[in-house]
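The aim of this short unit is practical: by the end, you should be able to scan a pair of folded records and say something sensible about each. We start with the first protein, listed as its amino acid sequence and then its structure tokens.
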Amino acid sequence: MKEKQETKSKLLTAARECLLKSGHARATIKQIAALAGVNHGLVHHYFGSKEYLFLEVLLEESRQFDRNLDSIHNENDMIKFLTERLFMNARLIVEFQAMAMQMPSINKALGEITMKRKIQLKERLNIKDPIEGDIITSSIIGLVIQYNINPEIPREKILKHLFQLFSIDFTLNKMYSEKN
């Protein structure tokens, strides 16, 4: 059982790495398996296909995001979190968006994750107006895409300014804190 989990973990790590280096279109099952140090048949055995392997990478990234989100307690934590977690994964986010246009399972999961992120950010930023929440989350997503194009943009300054534009009172929403 432990060996099975280790093999799956190696494949997920290798798939993530291949996505970042080669992109989803050029990443092959054989490359991923070679990077993981396992037989390529194990990809099909554990995941069924490249699409479902990439789906599991997406779901694991989402679970990691959720675990890290729990450590946010103030505006500086949020900016640090967004800078480290989102912007450092900008290439991966763009890859998943591209895959969503071709792979139904990725499309569905990415849609669900995006809605969940909007709700989480609205709660964490204590935003009551749904339109403001959509503007802020859309701005953050746009900033991530822009960062993928130009990593020199001052992302922390932009995030701080965005929060100021909407007069975000960055106090943890009591309902959110009580739920978790």
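Turning to the second protein, read its sequence before its tokens, just as you did above.
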Amino acid sequence: MTDPHNPRPENPSSENPDPQGPAPAAPPAYGEYAPPPAPPAYGEYAPATPVAPPAPDANAYQQPAYAAAPTYAAATPAPGTPVPGKTLGIVAFVLAFFVQLIALILGIVALVQSKKAGRSNGFALAAIIISAVLLVIGAIIAAIFIPIFIESINAATVCANDPSATVEVFGQQLSCQQLLDQSGR
């Protein structure tokens, strides 16, 4: 009995003089699918050779989409490693009580260095807060006392040049003699 999918001629030498066997069928044109094989007849076995998969479509020639590489969290530094900006934060904290503007700048620099390393810096944060608050309080005090000091200097200069003159101090007219008596001189 012959295979319906692969019929063999009774005399292979008469039809195909090639000793290697019959020539394979021509492949389908590009983009076309080969016709599916006919199903086996009832009671016959399926062909032993596997059926070729359908021709690939245009997407088969594109690069495969790979999954993204997993991301890893930054490694936390060992417990004994120094914190960048820690010393600068301490210096800024000490200076915050004396030189607020410089302490504010140093505190910001120390905090940025620590944040880049993924660490916290309490001294730098405290230096920024303390120096900013004291800087504002200092500016308010300066705004109040500088005009008072300037007015006092002007009155003292007038009295030093003419002891019999009259000066205006905080809206009151005073003679230079009264001013000297009130100051204790």
